[in-house]
Amino acid sequence: MPARFVTIATAGALLLPVSALAYTVTSGAPAVGEAPSRFEQADFPASRFEPRQKESTAATTSGGSSFALKNMDDVTRLKTEAMLSALGARQEGNRIIVALPADVLFDFDKSNIRPDARAVLGQLSGILLAMPKSPVGITGHTDAKGSDDYNQRLSEQRATSVRKWLAQLGVADRRMTTSGKGEAEPVVPNQNADGSDDPGGRQKNRRVEFAIGTGD
Length: 216
Description:
Organism: Endobacterium cereale
CATH superfamily: OmpA-like domain
Order of helices and strands: EEEEEHEEHHEHEHE
GO cellular component, one term: cell outer membrane
Distance between the termini: 40 Å
Subcellular location: Cell outer membrane
Pfam families: OmpA (PF00691)
CATH architecture: 2-Layer Sandwich
Radius of gyration: 17 Å
Main location: membrane
């Protein structure tokens, strides 16, 4: 699927690929391990938009950014802020967290990067290259389908694949660390209150998280 781009109207026009959040995922037939998914690109009414003002209690800089971006000129800060917002990033203490859906990055039960995920990772690499002194922790997460051991290995392999791809895009490998949490840290329950399977919840739990900066 060819990458689509949107233009963010800022002081200088910035061409960005459609973010990972621009994809909807629907579950297919049940299977061992992570549930398979089918991808459809979300329908956008227009290709030009203004970034929304984020409602956040996150730390702000003197420039009014929603993110603690340091040692940047105004143009770079504005562009980086726009790219972080497009990826749905959030500020947690001194770290910026970006969570990308695993279903956008990988095919079912695989750890190889999907060809159509390269635009999203290219956008992320642009952010990381604008913050060259910030360490980056890459953590893979799965849903609860399959065994604990299987999901742990898959989450580790996916984090490693992303690290290698970002290194190919110019991000210094020494800045990056990887880990896998398997199914241990879901963001929402994998089951409904009645104990039945919740495909939507499992989809949200399948993700790769990037922690940019230190936790100090």
